[in-house]
Amino acid sequence: MPFRTELYIGMRHLRSRRKPAFVSLTTWISVLGIALGVATLIVVVGVMTGFERELRSRILGTQSHVVVVEPGAAGMEAWRSVLARVKGHRGVAAASPFVFGQALLSSRGRVVGSVVRGIDPALETAVTDIRGYVEPAAIGRLAQGGAPASTTPQVLLGSELAASLQVGTGDEVSVVSPAGVVTPMGVLPRSKAFKVAGVFRSGFYQYDAGLAFITLREAQNFFNLGSGVTGVHARVGDIFQAERIARELQRELTSRYWARSWQQMNRNLFSALKTEKTTMTILLLLVIVVAAFNIVGSLVMVVMEKGREIAILKSMGATRGGILRIFFLQGAFIGVGGALVGTLGGLVLGWNLHYVEDFLEKVFGLDILPPSIYHIDRLPIHMTAQDVSLTALMAVLVCLGATLYPAWRASRVDPVEMLRYG
Asked: What are the residue boundaries of the structural domains of the chain, listed by start?
């Protein structure tokens, strides 16, 4: 039997007006179920990818791509030579030294623990995106406040940290080191007054609530590092090559230094996001599998209804393979049609997701993304051609697998028994 004839017969079965209403309804439910499953999966995967991209951009806004430290040492004394070697490495765009320490910040009777990072403002803006999170004048005030002639050094505070301390630009805060100073009276905490040069908002709560910037010189003095630093961090041209560059730097430097990429430093976070994305994909794929079972039921009922027609086709010379292809094509049409409708629906919904978000917030009074927590006013969504095509392909493969049993059962119909008793 020619393929065109098999395709024609399969389509005639789908369009047949003599088919019982229940069978036709089951077919449309199958198409709708597959379409909804595919559309939902495309949107959810797009949102998960968008969250990952947004989180990565915010983390890398205040964190460098590669960090070189000297573990086990109080400070890196030979940091200038390390800085020169890191800057000269192929693929590194910029590098700068930094000091990292923990301290307590107090103001107006409030005390909050924080990470204090000492930076060189002239070099730091080329390594991180801190300039984009604070007014430009604040960077200038920070640099001027760290000059030797200045009496009061300056500090940049995260927005949540400043809110916890109830301070703003121009206010004064006390920074207390838990290490302390040894005196005849015992160990006393080291404390110093700083003036707030500005407030930055990175959009990442962990940084906004627990990070403060001071100048490199002030950090060296405050943490008693002398001329040493905690380490050297760098910005690379391609963030996805950071791990390779970190390995190369590790080989070039002596074993006393460690080089780590942003992937290694945030491995747990991004592994959790990847696991969540995979889990959601598997769960939503089950929706498509359930819809595919409707295809099985629909085609089985079609085989029962078309038993006499199958017997007549076989008596006219149709082979088992021909009958199998007829019903396989019929199920494939349902699956491909549902996947196509679902793909188009998912793309349209994804491109207009902010309208849906506005509607839900307005009608039901929901606050889907509280700005005070996420600092994102819209659901981030990023639909890639790879994710969309892979989702549609998985749906089609599941549906094709669901058509195998009904098609095989149709090919096994005995024409003699069916024409005698059918």
From this structure: 3-58+270-421, 64-264
